[in-house]
Amino acid sequence: MPEVLEALAALGDNTPVLAGAAVIRLARTWSLAVSMVALVLIPVLATLAGVLGASGFM
Fold it and tell me: H helices of 1-58, where?
């Protein structure tokens, strides 16, 4: 059963990446400033989620 929980946690850590891909896809029609904010925040939030998710297993 712990393996299932770890798999679910790993899938949860991928959520910011998938959301970021959707935002970047939508950002094609937005202004340059909004696109740049999205391109900066998405990797930062994805990295933060990955670090917090990985530290939960320690």
Answer: 2-13, 15-26, 32-55
9 SS3 class: helix
Q: Tell me the per-residue pLDDT of 25-47, one tens digit each, with 9 for 90 and over.
A: 887 888 888 888 888 888 888 78
pTM (two decimals): 0.55
Alpha-carbon distances, residue 9 vs 37, 51, 55 (angstroms): 27, 12, 11
Q: How far apart are CA 15 and CA 50, in angstroms?
A: 10
- Residue 35: CB atoms within 10 A of its CB come to 16
Place of tokens 């029609």: 29
